[in-house]
Amino acid sequence: MLTKKLSLLVIAAAVVTSSQAMAWGANGHRIVGELASQHLTPNTQKALTPLLEGESLAQVSTWADEMRSDSSTFWRKKSSKWHYINVSDAENMDKHVHHNVSSKEQVKNILDGIYYGINVLKSDKSSVDEKRFALRFLVHLVGDSHQPFHAGRADDHGGNKIKVTFFGDSTNLHSTWDTRLIESERLSYTEFTNFIKTSNNAIIEDYLNSEPADWLLESHYISEKIYNLNETDISYGYIYKYMPTVKTRLQQGGIRLAGLLNQIFDKNAQPLKEALKTSKTATLNN
């Protein structure tokens, strides 16, 4: 058991690189979105309808990566830093948690990006277009925050510079966790979601007693364990060892995304039911 507190993480100075801005791959993000959709209250579903414009959470979950091909300055030069945070040790997190981020210019990392999305969606002053942007990014960033190497080390760009082989094919550690482990299951995102979905209230309550900083701290600790083992020849044994972690992180991401959305859009949602977050600090299984 590990007690998560907002004083447990520090952001390291790091060079922003677009290569670190991809997480989970398309199917991983869709799994998070699909699972979240199963835990939304009716009021939340109704509020999301005009923002989703006929799409599902699974469909919009990959938008923030797809838009990186856009030629505008924001997407080419500024958006990559929204997707990750580099971690150096486990102290002084609270000074980096900015609950009141309200403009794109204030976003320096994924934690800022999550709070930006929350604040825009909560604000009566936000336009519909601003809320659509915020929702699509928030869905994506909650997924990113549960990929261990989006809270990895700056010097290797979150595992992108660590070369590994996956059943003999050359790749890198980040890509392995983004895509290859999930794709090795040979399931569609809906099939994968059905395998990891849960209605266990105890599990849901455990996941939801947390804050975005906790999710990134969890990812940091997982990535550090993987770094320290330095496993570079990846095959069946590696998949057997880490697939439970992959499934848990995707499950946590989906439940917690639903929790945020219910918190934002449904004032009548019941505490710790239907994925509603209720506590700022938590004790979670590592």
Structure description:
This is S1/P1 nuclease. It comes from Pseudoalteromonas caenipelagi. It holds the Pfam family S1-P1_nuclease. The structure is a single chain. The protein is mostly helical and 286 residues long. The chain has one domain: Orthogonal Bundle (P1 Nuclease). Helix content is 50%, strand content 6%. It contains 12 helices and 5 strands. Strands 3-2-4 form a 3-stranded mixed β-sheet. Strands 1-5 form a two-stranded antiparallel sheet. It is globular. The model is unreliable at 1-22 and 278-286 (pLDDT under 50).
CATH fold node name: P1 Nuclease
Structural class, from helix and strand content? mainly alpha
Please give the alpha-carbon distance between the first and last residues.
6 Å
Radius of gyration over alpha carbons? 18 Å
Q: Which blocks of ≥5 consecutive residues have pLDDT under 50?
A: 1-22, 278-286
* CATH homologous superfamily caption: P1 Nuclease
- Number of DSSP-assigned strands: 5
